[in-house]
Design a protein that fits this description.
The chain has 224 residues and is of the alpha/beta class. It is built from ten helices and eight strands. It has an eight-stranded parallel β-sheet with strand order 7-6-5-4-3-2-1-8. The protein binds pyridoxal-5'-phosphate (PLP).
Length: 224
């Protein structure tokens, strides 16, 4: 059977119409050419996710300036300075050290940078992230509370890459329960409103489990 090829615009609008109003769509455009991003932009998409700083910088230069750029990949501290001028939200913050560097650079640029703390919920060792105790230590630390140029607006996590829907659901439920428990922490730079979980293969489960932000790439732009 011949597969009918949907355009980027059609796939984007299709996914968007399936999302509840409280869920934000990050269109993950890593490895894709700017023409593809432009097609999504023309269909109304304004939030794009990239996982490499240099690629994000190059696309930022070429594309309209009302795009919100999200860094969804692992970030090395020594590269933070390159993205501070234009990054809107950093999803993968997984250490106090990294947060410190983001704050330091944000001070230099007189900006306030929004961050999500990445939590390790998957079975795989390869995925980055804090465990629950590390998260609590971080949020309790005086060092964190003193960072005036960042705001932690939520948590991010990735489920195990598996076909086992029950396992995925358990992992997302675990992240949601950590998110709920963390509401008891208070500081001026903490406002936990965003739960970034769900990608092309698992976003319907993530939404069911309380996601407020999904990061979808291949279902919009095709495989990589
Ligand atoms: C690539 C990537 C995505 C999107 O993955 P798809 O399966 O293409 O939707 C989401 N989150 C992160 C952190 C990624 O690196």
């Amino acid at each position: 059977m011949k597969k009918i090829k949907m355009s980027i615009k059609e796939k984007l609008l299709d996914i968007k119409s399936s999302l509840p109003p409280h869920v934000t769509l990050v269109a993950v455009s890593k490895t894709k050419p700017v023409a593809d991003l432009m097609e999504a932009y023309e269909a109304g998409q304004r939030i794009f996710g990239e996982n490499k700083i240099q690629e994000m910088t190059e696309k930022w230069q070429q594309l309209p300036k009302d795009i919100e750029w999200h860094m969804i990949g692992h970030v090395q501290s020594n590269k933070v300075k390159y993205m501070i001028p234009y990054v809107k939200l950093i999803h993968g913050v997984d250490s106090l050290k990294l947060l410190k560097e983001i704050n330091r650079q944000a001070v230099r640029w007189r900006k306030n940078i929004h961050c999500l703390l990445q939590i390790h919920i998957a079975e795989e060792e390869t995925k980055f992230g804090l465990d629950e105790n590390e998260l609590k230590d971080l949020l309790n630390s005086e060092e964190f509370k003193a960072m005036a140029n960042i705001k932690v607006i939520g948590l991010m996590g990735m489920a195990t890459f598996t076909n086992n829907q029950l396992q995925i659901k358990r992992e997302f439920q675990h992240l949601k329960s950590i998110f709920d428990h963390c509401q008891q922490f208070t500081s001026d730079n903490l406002q936990l409103t965003t739960l970034s979980m769900g990608m092309s293969g698992d976003y319907p489960i993530a939404i069911e489990c309380g996601s407020t932000m999904v990061r979808i790439g291949s279902s919009i732009f095709g495989g990589r």
